[in-house]
């Protein structure tokens, strides 16, 4: 319509490629303490000894649990972005993907850099976020959404027999009109489950539902604050 505020979204997706679960480590300790007392009686005919002993046993132990270790790989977000923007557009907002912002305006953070940071540190560094916001501001973006989606490894559903994928989405919406960005809305954590005969179908279904739920949460929060 040209009347709504321009929102640009940057979501980075990663999927579990392997997961290692560690067994519990149980340590048991047994301590024994023996004491022996002796007394001697001397007589004219010889020497006799009487002895008594006492035993004290203490047992105990500990259990050590280690968190599971998971490995991730970056996945594309085009399905998520399309569903996310569809909901916001229907609610009266103008949308733009960060890829277009990066290509059009100067000073932005490269998408490859952002993805690498999320894989390594689970989040985007403040310096990289500032660069992304700077480019978005130059492109006249009013609200900038930064988020992450974690996609589980596919698992078999015990009821339907199909594959099941779980997507968890978190993020924040920043008002970047002024010099200091202001957090005006939060996303999630939102979890969605997708089913399908194959992994790709299950993942797309989960991403679609997660994107629509995330966009609805953003639009509801903004409109409750009368932000259009």
| Helix content estimate | 25-40%
Radius of gyration over C-alpha positions, nearest whole angstrom:
31 Å
- The end-to-end distance, rounded to whole angstroms, is 12 Å
Low-confidence stretches: none
Main pleated sheet? 7 strands, mixed
Please, what is the average pLDDT? 79
Apparent shape: globular
- Oligomeric state of the chains in view: single chain
Work out the helix count: 5
Count all strands and give the number: 9
Structural class: alpha+beta
Strand content: 35-45%
Q: Strand-and-helix sequence, N→C?
A: EEEEHEHHHEEEEH
3D structure, described in words:
Strands 1, 4, 5, 6, 7, 8 and 9 form a seven-stranded mixed beta sheet that branches. A two-stranded antiparallel sheet has the order 2-3. Helices cover 31% and strands 44% of the residues. The longest helix is centred in the last third of the chain and has 26 residues, at 199-224. It has helices at 78-90, 98-104, 111-121, 126-138, 199-224, and strands at residues 6-20, 25-42, 47-64, 69-75, 94-97, 143-151, 155-156, 163-175, 182-196. It is of the alpha+beta class.
Briefly say what this structure is:
With 228 residues, the protein is α+β, with helices and mostly antiparallel strands.
Features:
single chain; 228 residues; alpha+beta; seven-stranded mixed sheet; two-stranded antiparallel sheet; 9 strands; 31% helix
SSE layout:
Blueprint: E1 6-20, E2 25-42, E3 47-64, E4 69-75, H1 78-90, E5 94-97, H2 98-104, H3 111-121, H4 126-138, E6 143-151, E7 155-156, E8 163-175, E9 182-196, H5 199-224
Parallel strand pairs: 1-5, 1-6
Antiparallel strand pairs: 1-4, 2-3, 6-8, 7-8, 8-9
Helix pairs in contact: 1-5
